[in-house]
Write a structure and sequence with these properties.
The protein is an all-alpha fold and 238 residues long. It has two domains: 58 residues; 143 residues, no CATH class. The protein is built from nine helices and no strands. It is globular, with a radius of gyration of 24 Å. The two termini are 47 Å apart.
Length: 238
């Protein structure tokens, strides 16, 4: 009996430790799923309102989430988010912002030395395997975050263009207009309106975070400097 009780306690302890060790990822994953569900419900209602206006048959929620309208709304947001992180990861290698915790220290612009980056002969026993080897493997791993962010951005932008032209052509057909080709849609105002309205908001948010964090604080957050740190302190996290 005691062994079974210990097992239950051990299971609870494992879940508690797992939640503590992965709290940030779990929180944002759950928040993402809730927001996605909310978007599907609200989008479904809006889509059916448009169908009613056009005197067309309405669709169920399950049918709506398989439509190009839903897919393009989701993908256009994903591509802008990953563009934001792709640019941020890349430009912060070289560009600095004095006083911001979002910037490296002013003397560390660039890719830094092998010793600073713990690669090659400077790798530790617990360093990732490819950090300690030379050649293409080290080069790939040294830029893996940028490569993955860039790939996801390009793929989601491709999905946006494909689903976007399908949704756009459905609307044009309802208005008895000729559909556009995929290449034609890439030059259409609808595609760039969807794209740029997301890009500008993401880039503004990043710029605001980089600059406001020079002067403003959030106690205990790694995205902020310590409350008492000088405004000019750069690359310091709380």
């Amino acid at each position: 009996m005691s062994r079974r009780g210990g097992g239950r306690g051990g299971g609870r302890g494992f879940l508690r430790d797992f939640a503590r060790d992965n709290g940030l990822g779990l929180f944002f994953t759950v928040a993402f799923l809730l927001a996605l569900v909310g978007q599907a419900i609200a989008g479904h209602a809006d889509f059916n309102n448009q169908m009613a206006t056009d005197q067309l048959q309405q669709v169920s929620l399950g049918e709506y989430v398989t439509t190009s309208d839903f897919a393009v709304d989701v993908s256009e947001n994903w591509q802008s988010e990953y563009l934001q992180f792709f640019l941020y990861v890349g430009v912060t290698v070289w560009l600095l912002q004095r006083g911001s915790p979002e910037s490296k220290m002013l003397h560390k612009a660039g890719t830094e030395s092998d010793e600073d980056q713990l690669v090659g002969r400077h790798a530790k026993e617990n360093s990732p395997k490819w950090a300690g080897v030379g050649g293409w493997r080290q080069a790939v791993y040294s830029n893996s975050l940028l490569l993955v962010m860039g790939t996801i951005f390009l793929l989601s932008w491709l999905v946006q263009s494909i689903t976007g032209v399908a949704a756009y052509n459905e609307q044009r057909l309802r208005q008895l207009q000729a559909p556009l080709s995929w290449a034609g849609y890439l030059g259409a105002a609808d595609f760039w309106n969807r794209t740029l309205q997301n890009w500008q908001s993401e880039l503004l948010a990043v710029a605001s975070m980089a600059v406001l964090s020079i002067y403003l604080r959030q106690r205990g957050s790694p995205e902020s400097k310590p409350v008492g740190a000088a405004h000019g302190a750069t690359g310091v996290e709380g």
